[in-house]
């Protein structure tokens, strides 16, 4: 089903409201707390999600909401707005403007629209099923990648992978670096890396342990820019995905990236499922 312009407009307004809530806190008094899962949360996270929820409660009262800070509100439409007010809270707390607000619309378990908004630099990617991804209103395109060796690989942190995942990530690092340590991954970035991939500045992003609110917005943006987004078995991302995520700018490299990821010796093998091209 094509995305309605009204939903795109609403997503923009949600991102605007979150940005207005976040900017006054950036490099200021953060009021940081550590949550039960040891991740930081700030007053800005909570203010931004509350601002978005107020708009949704007024304008889309029948839709469900799944937010990182305030949990799940059930809906009756089969549609869920998935919100991460600050993806990259650690970057935010140290004054790095590479965090982002994520807004996604999920219909019957499938992410169909997503926004990555960087409110300090005022950069915004928006992607929707059947539409080209836009970056600040102009089309965003992933770049061609002739071979896996030499591809630019990014991940937020090597420490975010669990013990089973580390060998697979390192196998992918070996494939892109060709044994040259200087060609190692780009670290840091959270959701911002996926925007950079959509705009043709990175080739591969690989992460584990993501929640739905971390990845739902990313898939429509990457796919609408010509890339592919999948799990580590090559299957499309849905609300049921485990959180092992790959973004590949050039779909022609998808098989090689998956093979490299599964070339690991030792560690748990995640299998190599079938995937679409």
From TrEMBL:
SUPFAM superfamilies: Carbohydrate phosphatase. Its cofactor is Mg(2+). The gene is hisN. Mg(2+) binds at residues 68, 84, 86-87, 214. Its EC number is 3.1.3.15. GO terms for biological process: L-histidine biosynthetic process. Keywords: Hydrolase, Magnesium, Metal-binding. It holds the Pfam family Inositol_P. GO terms for molecular function: histidinol-phosphatase activity; metal ion binding. It comes from Sphingomonas dokdonensis. Belongs to the inositol monophosphatase superfamily. This is Histidinol-phosphatase.
